Write a sequence for this structure.
């Protein structure tokens, strides 16, 4: 029996490639997350993404705790089983009227993971609406093979390489609005974008990429943390766990992967072909 999802929600995920919304944090807890993020940004006098973008859970102990929230891990277990690795986490911030967007893409095109039993969980720290650029999905597209992505390196595209799927018919796209503290889940092959923030406030959220321990990276050996269950496969090396916020060992790990994901010379699945 599922722990959090109903059987209908499990079926929807497998049929359509996404399911939402789920309550996780209270409005007050989501506001506390925003306050912590903005306090850090004030301390560096700039965007958090300059120093913390990929594997964000390694930068802040409180974020690692959120990644292991029982409601999050129970929902993940309902879809991929009890032995769970956290591979990536990413901040997705859009300031009011800043023009930032995310193009149509598949997460799977750049991960190089096999099999494709991988999910992305998107957690909102502020309300995410069509006006401020919430995510959309194309139902059923998770059943498609990996699509060809063009790397544009557009400065307004929040994706590291500005990767985009050109010429896509998105007439059947479905928006996934969330209240602050709620999360959505989508399959790694699900096609999805998000538009610019046309509102007068920031839109703050983040994604977590979870996978069962049986999944491996076919590009090279990569790193993750075990957040539930056991790992009987040994496909992954382990990231350092943050002892406290901004642990120097973890911050160096983050910088390594930021450079790797942006570097055209580092193999990614869409480039590898």
């Amino acid at each position: 029996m599922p722990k959090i999802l109903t059987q209908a929600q499990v079926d929807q995920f497998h049929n359509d490639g996404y399911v939402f919304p789920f309550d996780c944090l209270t409005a007050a807890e989501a506001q506390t997350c925003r306050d912590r993020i903005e306090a850090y940004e004030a301390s560096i006098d700039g965007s958090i993404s300059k120093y913390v973008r990929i594997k964000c859970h390694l930068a802040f102990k409180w974020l690692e705790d959120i990644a292991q929230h029982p409601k999050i891990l129970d929902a993940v277990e309902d879809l991929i089983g009890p032995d769970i690795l956290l591979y990536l986490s990413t901040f997705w911030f859009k300031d009011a009227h800043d023009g930032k967007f995310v193009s149509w893409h598949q997460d799977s095109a750049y991960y190089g993971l096999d099999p494709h039993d991988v999910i992305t969980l998107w957690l909102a720290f502020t309300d995410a609406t069509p006006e401020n650029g919430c995510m959309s999905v194309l139902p059923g597209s998770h059943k498609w093979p990996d699509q060809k992505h063009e790397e544009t390196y557009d400065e307004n595209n929040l994706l590291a390489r500005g990767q985009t799927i050109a010429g896509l018919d998105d007439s059947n796209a479905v928006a996934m609005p969330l209240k602050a503290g709620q999360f959505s889940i989508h399959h790694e092959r699900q096609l999805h974008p998000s538009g610019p923030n046309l509102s007068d406030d920031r839109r703050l959220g983040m994604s977590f990429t979870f996978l069962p321990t049986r999944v491996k990276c076919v590009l090279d050996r990569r790193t993750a943390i075990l957040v539930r269950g056991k790992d009987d496969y040994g496909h992954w090396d382990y990231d350092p766990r943050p002892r406290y916020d901004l642990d120097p060992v973890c911050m160096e790990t983050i910088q390594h992967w930021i450079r790797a994901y942006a570097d055209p010379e580092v193999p990614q699945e869409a480039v590898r072909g």
